[in-house]
Amino acid sequence: MSNNMAKNIYSLNSKNTDVSLSLVSAYITTTERHYYNHFNAYAAKNKPEKDNFIGIIHTVSGNGIIRTVNHVHNLNAGDLVIIKHNEIVSFESRQEEWHFYCIWFYLRGLKLECDKVTRVPELNGERERYIDIIDRLNGDSTFSVIKANALCLSLVMDYIECIGFVEKPVPYKAKLDETIKFIHDNVESPVTVEQLANRCGFCKNHFCNLFKKYTEITPKQYIINTKLKKSVFLLLNSSLSVEEIADKLSFFSQSYYISCFKKHYRITPAQFRKNKTLASFLIDEN
After folding, report:
1. Does residue 107 surpass a pLDDT of 90?
2. How many other C-beta atoms are found inside a 10 Å radius of the C-beta of residue 188?
3. What is the DSSP annotation of 145-206?
4. DSSP for residue 99
5. What per-residue confidence (pLDDT) applies to 265?
6. Which is nearest to 91 in space by CA: 211, 16, 99?
7. Could you tell me the domains of the chain?
8. Residue partners of 13: CB distance under 8 A and separation at least 6
9. Nearest-angstrom CA–CA distance, 74 and 93
10. Per-residue model confidence (pLDDT) at position 35
11. Cα-based angle 133, 134, 140 (whole degrees, multiple of 5)
12. What is the Cα–Cα distance from 248 to 279, expressed in whole angstroms?
């Protein structure tokens, strides 16, 4: 046995923060004068994640108007606004052209303050970053799209840093954080939603509502996702069979584990283990 020591510089994600972004589209737009684009708020209306379909519009020059169901935003050079797609009424310009950058994406794990205009100077290399995102989004490979998502998330975080992001107080945050830690600490156990609700002292429905508002997914799905992430580690770093992994992580059955895995990663555990290059892309994407 080796007694060699190792020196590490490291940090741990103690809050179990899980932020993911799925890019839908990116634009560099210049409108004509008297431009008008009416929205029916239809695109995300019937989707469960409709409130997570977010747009960021950053005006470069000219003047534009964005009408939402609650506000009318008059935008000038440097103005940035974050809006929910299902709340847009119209985009308009008046006596001059309107030049702006725009990205649309689904966001999980981070709540942004919407329908508020903030002055944000044009970022260093902002146009080039949009061109890079657009080029990669137009690419044919899975890797190209994943890279576009990563670049978009980086851009969003830079915008948020300029705005000055402040986390809103979350009711029962300490109990919810403790619950999340319990799920991770007991990833190999058959944890149930009822068990978690009882630990918090809530009825099941109230607990599920609080948990989903905090994490944006249900407790059941969070438990499954945590087990799936652990299974990814085991697939790549152990010789355990798929059946043994399903049993180790307390899935109801091997077939249920495979079904959950395929739904989340779009391939089976066996395919995932066989193609480690594709596996690394899918891990980054999810």
Report:
1. no
2. 12
3. HHHHHHHHHHHHHHHHHHHT--PPP-TTHHHHHHHHHHHHHTTTS---HHHHHHHHT--HHH
4. E
5. 85
6. 99
7. 20-163 (2.60.120.280), 173-285 (1.10.10.60)
8. none
9. 9
10. 92
11. 100
12. 21
pLDDT tens digit sequence for 214-251: 888 899 999 999 999 999 989 988 999 999 999 999 99
With vertex at residue 219, the alpha carbon angle to CA 270 and CA 186, rounded to the nearest 5 degrees, is 65
What six digits make up the tokens of 73? 């935003």
Per-residue confidence (pLDDT) for residue 220, from 0 to 100: 95
- How many angstroms separate the CA atoms of 56 and 18, rounded? 21
Q: How far apart, in Å, are the Cα atoms of 137 and each of 149, 170, 267, 285?
A: 8, 35, 22, 14
Q: Can you give the pLDDT at residue 45?
A: 44
What would the two tokens of residue 263 be?
């739904």
Q: What one-letter code names the amino acid at 149? A: N
- Ramachandran bin of 158, using left for φ above 0, alpha for ψ from -120 to 50, beta for the remaining angles: alpha
* Residue 186: pLDDT band with limits 50, 70, 90: very high
Q: What is the pLDDT of residue 102?
A: 96
Looking at every residue in the chain, the average pLDDT score rounds to 86
CB 25 within 8 A of CB 104: yes
* 3-state SS assignment for residue 35: coil
Question: 104: which 2 tokens?
Answer: 């649309």
**Structure token pair of residue 97:** 């052209």
Q: What backbone phi and psi angles, to 5 degrees, belong to 91?
A: -110, 135
Q: From CA 174, how far away is CA 190, in angstroms rounded?
A: 23
Residue found under tokens 């954080």: 177
**pTM for the model:** 0.61
Count CB atoms within 10 A of the CB of residue 284: 12
